[in-house]
Amino acid sequence: MTATTLIKRAGIGCLTLLLSPLAWSHPHSFIAMQTMPVVSNDALTGLKMVWTMDEITSADLLYDAGDAEPGSPVWKKLAAEVMANVLAQHYFTEFWHRGKAVKFDNLPPSYALARNGAQAVLTFVLPLAQPQPLKGQTYTFSSFDPTYFVDMSWKNAQALSLPEPLASRCKMTLQTPQPDAALKNFALSLDKADAPPESMDLGRQFAQTVTLSCQ
Prior knowledge:
The chain is of the alpha+beta class. The protein has helices at residues 55-65, 73-88, 181-189, 202-206, and strands at residues 7-9, 12-16, 29-40, 43-53, 93-97, 100-101, 111-116, 119-133, 138-143, 150-153, 170-175, 209-214. It is globular and about 45 Å long.
């Protein structure tokens, strides 16, 4: 497994990327997310995710890809390695409806890895195990690394978009938590080799929440 792959670290379920030794405090890596619901027959079937990695995180991936053309076997192999480890961690995503977790299918219908300048971009569809009704329903979801080794975030509300069939009757809202100074200082104090106590679930305390509501 290459240093570019999203892997388990120290037996803890987290997104781990081998970064520059100059990175010390948590988080060590950053992923900017974009998300759009996927619908079929007026039901929610999944989420289209676009994860853009920061330049340092992307460097080894882009080095391994070299001058390979988009869609080539080299890119497909790298995408499969990354996606396999994302799958192993349940897509680093939780999805809820009326207080109950909604299950995912463990076989994404599509995924790809590509280059955007100095950044690597993973695009995939996170499929729900069963289609979910939309009319009059509200769903919430979050994507995060439990150890906060990687900061996964939507930059703003514009990073969330609705497909045309839902634009007139659904809305998506983004809630960003405001952890207190003590928690922020604790995260900053963690060395690159450190992992916070698993019971602390540090990443969840920094995780944004998206709400999808439909009429």
